[in-house]
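Colleagues,

Please find the record for the two-part complex below.
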Amino acid sequence: MAEHVLTEGRRRARRASGRLNREQSWLGYALVLPVLMCLLLLVFYPFVFAIWISFTDRMVGRPGRFVGFANFAYLFGQASFQATVRNTIVLVGSVQVLKLVFGLGIAVLLNQPIRGRSFWRALVLLPWAMPAFVAYLTWKLLYAPQGGAFNMIVLGLGLSNTHIDFLSTRAWAMPSVVVATFWRGFPFWVISFLAAMQNISTEMYEAAAIDGAGAWQRFRHITLPSIRHVILVVVLLSTIWTTNGFENIWLMTQGGPSDTTMTFPVLAYFGMQSLRLGEAAAVSVAMLPIFAMLVLIVAKLLQED
Amino acid sequence: MIGRARLRYQIMNYSLLSLLAVVILFPIYYMVIISLKLPRDIYRKPSLLPINPTLRNYRDLLVRDEFLINILNSLIVAGLATLISVAISSMAAYSLVRLKYRFRTTIGRLILLAYLTPSALLFIPLSVIIAQMRLGNTLHGLIFVYLTFAAPLSTWLLMGFFRGIPFDLEEQAMVDGATRVQAMVYILLPLSAPGLIAVSVFTFTGAWNELLLALIFITSPDKQTVPVALQYLITGDVFRWGLIMAGSVVAALPVMVVYYLAQRFVVQGLAAGAVKG
């Protein structure tokens, strides 16, 4: 008898929860639908479409036909594409190393018992709170041969007796772009690292200090291991964004002089302006394998959080 | 001894901080003083100081109807993109965090992947799609396109914020007879106000600052947003730096004010590993 009541109750509960589940899934799909539709139309469909276009000779206003790997073969033979690959490695590599070293250093500095810490944190956020296009227009001005601050300083200190055209000289263009890109991007790193460092318990540092560990040892054996995960996520996320940055190159050098600062997005943009969509799409798609790898790793890391 | 070591340490800290302040502030300072100079002072009397400051550049810029229209366009596009994005993303985030159904983990993963996909990869196919939908060179087309980055970012961030709010309160309200939607609107959303503010700030500034997509989709001057209009000022032969910098200051000001008002929330969102840098 008691058993019967129990199963009856259980059955009733199951029926109720089934109804609840149906209601939940109905509502769930309904609420997620608008965002899902947007993403299907604006992200996933274009993504697949880009790959398709890169295998056709599509032009603006003409559908084009399938040409296999012709666009990629053509592209890989182009000097400007080879320069783009090299530049991207140099630009992203050096900017990320600078951001990592200075990002960690500045975060450690701001994590000290200093007066007015919130003021300093707000100050560090400034370059990043500025719109990217404003930051890069300003740096273009700083580098300008006429009216630019850096030339005034260089000439004033007697470091050079002629104007240096930083952004139009082959030797100077890339380092100049690297510095500007670093300036705009480092706050994100500092703030992320600082937030992670503030979660480390002070007891660990005190214990280490009692054991006679110096500042470097404390950083190496306590700080670094504790924020390892955040460092990894920030490095990967920022690498995706820096590789795909458009404003820095477009506003400062447009890829010049003679392709010394050409990057993927700018090359693809020029390709689109020449109306040859197949080749332009091939530029973006060519970096897809590396990009996909990065994205899958970050996605996994972020979902673990 | 210890006192002296500590003093030396403090001096080192504050000198490094001052150096940092100079590196951060100098470009901003230079942007502002050049915006206050006329061409003849910029070129003939080069100086790092604000000599003969004048508001002429700002006047020249703001009496030009085009620039006021650019600002209005930017406000419309960024404002509406934010409203739409936050509305549909709160719904999606609620669904993915609070409701249990079959494909919700898959959908959550898709949203994360979409958020990580940069628009530099998508602009070529998007240009074809937008042309086919006859949305090219319209502000509503641009708003629509901005959902590519706004919707996944907002949804991903809001999911994090919603997850941090215990379900008990909503459950209690539902036991007391509120519907699920009422519980969301009257309990969850007000409690997530900091999250909603952070997400709105990120979406608004993201749209206000966006250059690449606006450059591609907007072709006529009367539809241009501020970044597009300013980048056309540097493609001429002679750079009118005073004017360009005045425009930059005007473009940066609203965004930076918003950032500072919402700094606490912004840092919270940033700590969630959220935003481009």
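Chain A touches chain B through 97 residues (CB under 8 Å).

Comments are welcome before we finalize the supplementary table.
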